[in-house]
Design brief:
The chain has 199 residues and is mainly alpha-helical. The chain is 48% helix and 11% strand. The two termini are 27 Å apart.
Length: 199
Amino acid sequence: MIEKINLKYDTSLIDNFISSETFYYHYSKHYQTYVDNVNKAIKNTKYEGFSITDIIMWSYDTFESDVIDEPLLNNALQVFNHQLYFEQFTDKPVKMNDNFLEIINKNFGSLENFKKEFEEKANSLFGSGYVWLSINYVGECIIHTTKDGNNPIQSYWKPILCLDLWEHSYYIDYRNDRKKYIENFWNIIDWNIIYERYI
């Protein structure tokens, strides 16, 4: 059975990014629906007892046939994406540690360049999707986007940071000003969690 992650921060204290109302609908409604849909789909199937990552890879690669189980895959992708999204936040500022800053500088030249490229990629995404910081198959940190619910593990990359760009993640607070939502994303990142994902 797939379970929704528990939050380790006070959602009312991250209103410099999104409001409690947005958090309620996004976490308790949208994310919950994806979890419920996956659990209904895997009941009494070979996927029961699988991790969410294994459900994605098995339903995507379909070793036994050429037919992709799209409803299961789409909901499993969104469960994975929302787990990564919600667990990376903090209600208290957490600076990037020196080890991870060195990694960012090595891959992007500076922290400022990294944030600029991340925001540019996010602003350039048309429609719904995500922007990611991932580790690719040769160990490089890369910034990239995916459409709809797709995510990096489908390309065998390791995602360590993500920003949800579906309208339900920001529209209550920002309306059509997605650019401001993207800029405020940095206010609530727990960089220790991002570094732990990297190592």
